[in-house]
Design brief:
This protein is 42% helix and 19% strand. Strands 3-2-1-4 form a 4-stranded mixed sheet, covered by helices on one side. It is α+β, with helices and mostly antiparallel strands. Helix 2 runs parallel beside helix 4. The chain has one domain: Sufe protein. Chain: A.
């Protein structure tokens, strides 16, 4: 097993077992629900966005596979303190990463630890697991349909 595979497994398992930003956010002003029927992942994402369009707090609840839960945990940590515009750019980059739309030699430094999800593109069924929280984030930021599905 390569060092990247080891890191991937270690990061995913750590965030699955001990998710960050997991729980309720009673004073949220943006909320969306996500569902991946293929895997059974369910997620509620709650954000607190201030008048300057900065995500000051974010929490998630739900159940799902290790990849889905780890992705949500890592995403919430990555977007906290970012502007809505920065979070939307991250959404695009992450989506391109897991769907294989980035070249293999792409600079992933802007994604930080989220780059460990680069191997997901090799497993099409897992792309939906990793991206569920991101699609849910997009729905919460857009303020449109509060429920998204990967189907």
């Amino acid at each position: 097993m390569s060092d990247v595979d080891d890191l991937y497994q270690e990061q995913i398992l750590e965030h699955h077992k001990h998710p960050r930003n997991f729980g309720e956010l009673p004073d949220a002003n943006r909320v969306a629900n996500g569902h991946n029927p293929l895997c059974g992942d369910k997620l509620v994402l709650a954000l607190k966005v201030n008048d300057a369009n900065v995500i000051t707090d974010v929490m998630f609840q739900g159940s799902g596979c290790a990849i889905s839960r780890a992705s949500a945990s890592m995403m919430t940590g990555a977007i906290k303190g970012k502007t809505v515009e920065e979070a939307e750019k991250m959404y695009g980059r992450f989506h391109d990463l897991v769907t294989g739309q980035l070249p293999d030699d792409a600079d992933l430094s802007d994604l930080g630890k989220l780059a460990v999800f680069s191997g997901v593109k090799e497993y099409p069924a897992r792309v939906k697991c990793a991206s569920l929280c991101w699609h849910t984030l997009k729905a919460a930021l857009d303020g449109g349909d509060p429920t998204v599905t990967t189907e």
